[in-house]
Amino acid sequence: MIRIRKPSKGTIVLIILIAAGLIANYFLINQSTVLRIDENYHYDQILRFVSHNYTLHPELTMMPGYHFVMSLIAQIIGLSNIPFIRFMAFIINLGSIPIFYLVAKTIDSKSAFRKTVCFVFFPVMFPYFALIYTDITSITFVLLGLLFMLRKRYILSGLFTTLSMGIRQNNIVIFTYFFLASIYEIRKNTKSKDHFLTYARSLWTYAIGFILFGVFALVTKGFVLSSYARQVYFHISPSNMGNVYFFFFVIFVLFIFENLQRLPDIIKLFKRSLLVILLILFVFAVYMVTFTNDHPFNQAFWYLRNRVLVWAVSTWYFKLIFFLPVLYGALSMLVTKMHRKIFYPLIVFAVLYVFPSWMIEIRYHFIPLILYLLFKKETPRLGWITTGYFIVLGLFFMYGLANWWFFL
Question: What is the pLDDT of residue 181?
Answer without folding.
Answer: 94
